[in-house]
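Kindly inspect both lines:
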Amino acid sequence: MSEPGGTAVRAFPMRGRADELDVLDDVIANLMVGTGSVVLVEGAPGIGKTRLLAEVRDRLAAVGARSLCAKAFEDQQAVPFALLIATFGGAEAPVAGAAALRTLDARPDRRYWVVRDLEAAIASAAEQAPLAVLVDDVQWADTGSLVALRSLMDGLAAAPVAWILGMRPSAGRPAVRDAVDAMVLSRGRHGRRLRLDVLSTEEAADVARDVLGADVDTLLTWMTSMARGNPFLLLELLRGLRDEGRIRVDAGRASTAGGALPRRLADTMEQRLNRLSPGARRVVQMAAVLPENFSAATLARMVGQQPSGLVEFVGEAVRADLLTEVGDHLGFRHDLLRHAARQTIPLTLRRALERESAGALIDAGATPEEVAIVVTRSADVGDRDAVAILRRAAQTVSRSDPSTAADLSGQALRLMAADDADRNTVVAENLWLLNRAQRFDEAQRSFAAALDRPLDAEAEARIRLSMAMVSMRSPGQRAEENRRSLQLPGISSSTRTQHLGWLAYHAMMDGRVSVVRCAAVDALEAATAASDVTVAILAKVATANVDCAEGFGLFGLDTIAHVERLARSGDLGVVGQVAAFHRASIAISLGRLSEGAAMVEQGLDVARRADDKTLLQNFSQLDALRALAEGKLAEARTIVESAPGGLEAVDDGVTGLIHALVLSELAVRTDDRGLRRLSDLAARRLLDMGPARHRAAAVALAAAAWQSGDTDSAVAMLRDVDLLGTPFLAVDLDHVVFAARIAAASGDETLRQRVTSAITALEREPDAVRLFAAVAAHARGLLDGDAQRLAVAVELFAECERPLSNATAVEDFGRALLDDGDRERAIGLLNAAFDTFAGCESTADARRVGRALHALGVERRIGRRRARTGWESLTRTESQVVQLVADGATNREVAESLWLSHHTVNTHLRNIFAKLGIRSRDELGRMTVSERGRRSTPSWRS
């Protein structure tokens, strides 16, 4: 809110905002005792959001709190991290790392660490004095800043940091509004939403009394109502009356001559501009097509004069209360004035002027992304400079916001002439970005349309490459795009090299083990010749998976270690993500669970901070696989339930493959009918989709058949399956033991040979990978009925981080001893197996062992079926999370205490809230205190 003289109304009290100020005073009071909040202030333009934030800043200063203030701008929505840098990158920011913030876009590979360092710096600053972050016009925020802010809010939830955001509810992108809503909801009762309504007639009269320094008469009170309760319009009305000499103050009472509106309020912006000199009018109109804040030099260029020639005209515009100084720049007094001035320019001319302003800004040193929004709405078809600007902007923005980058790229494509020589290159770029943004249907339509047009070989190869790298298609389909492109005559060596690298990778992901090594060799040769690190990484990732599948675990580890060294060379985009995923996957598959879990957690954090949905899905499913390997079945289920689409979502990529494998394991081990149904559906979908998916589907269907007593069907499903293949995943080793069990029970020679082949592979490197040796010993022990080999397997598994595999070997060894007549040792082993299965909540396994013990006269029972809601519905891990959160632990502290990823903690909390019927941590704390009082012991779950 501004007074009629144009200065901020900081000396006047706020009117009509008593309730809102009470809430904000409560927020400040909580902040001063260490409790942060998230507050969203919503309202229409001119309603007083900025004034309210200024009042909050004053009140914070009065109690010794520090504050950071920033504002988002409409034309900077495509500038990565613009708002984040504006908020925390200024010299006045009481946090360290401002210089590092400016590397967020230049060094995407460091983004995770920069945001983490910023979080630590804010926490440190807040320890010195409570801190409030005030952001105005957040509806214009760029995606990268929103993701970073949400991450900071989550990480600093327990710190004395308040976040107060001003937003126009009807402006900005829907995704931004959804993100801001989520920020508020995530804080429970410490998330507040304030909606600023119009002022009442009495409140408007109070404002007039403050501004005029006198009581107002009936006529003036009636006139203030013409502003319809909008503070900005009210102040414009009062200033207009004063400028026209119509305000009279007698004996402390203000009145006005006549009831007509002042011209500045009644006139249109066109009429206001007509009262200016021609030079000042031109200055105002040119200013209206520039960004919100602009330099005098940029304005002078638009007007076509030297800056010195604008002094008189700018002064006139300032005196007319249209322009004002904003630091060392100029701007309109209010966005409403700026938009009104823009509307006085005919649309065609306005677009041309905006396009000219973009060129002027580029010449003055602006980056493409800083002018991209202006170019998008102002350029015409055939504007090659505009196309170049949008392409460069899309390239930069893609590092933090693939969807916005795809929009910019698509706009560049629409501005290109049909015969533009670069059109097909931009088509390929746009396809890549659409797939990165998971806008797969759009990408597929664009791909089909592109192939319908005449294309030269190079253009076709590049377009097919864009669809092969990242898309919703299966690896086999992607590999086919690579093969087709490699058959095209005359494609460039760089494009050929890329296709070779991706062909090797996709062949591996499709399970075509027999062709992967040759494809990888070809790719490595091409990569060496072209010095292409990305292709070398793809080839080596493919090779490492084949090494492991063929039993050469140490070779696989060496190869993946080389991949890690290559990946340090810089930001490798999606190839760097591929490398990180397979490093973690191979570590987990070879039994290095602690190492793999740390990699998965880092991958999840990177994905969340970058808002990369594809990467998040991939690492989430890998996290579920990690939980399975660790014997944490409830956690694995929680993870897959929280994935997009929940338990029923199975796609054609690696996410769908792992999801199907996890579903099968959970269904078999927990004997859950719902999971069995979903596992069967997933398996049948994948059965005919290439060797890797066929292998996973066959094992899932065989497991279901075996569990129901149908040995023949189980054998039939596995008879033609290579048990070890690519991609090499943690459950593959369990499948070898499972197949050995079926082969031994059925006597099927073909299946026995399959199992023997897998065992031979696992024995290729004696004493190299202990988990390989344990699985080989276990499988041979089952095939041969050899108790001694089973004993060796138990010893080997005891040194591995695979509790369920260990328990299975212990059970089999116990049964073998029982067959040999050693009843006492057998009971001891079966009891140990039961304890492990029950502890892991592997109920089907525990019941099976329990039945064996019952036959021996030993009664062991697992707990009753878990309730669906209430305290008894919580899993062991969820109960641990409850205890820690109720005692004040942050999500980060819970994650560190329980060795979980932050993502998994968030998922557990969502499930806990749903089961207990609550919405916030505060409610959880109160319920926990009550429950502890009701129970005899604080830790009520064993």
In short: The radius of gyration is 33 Å.
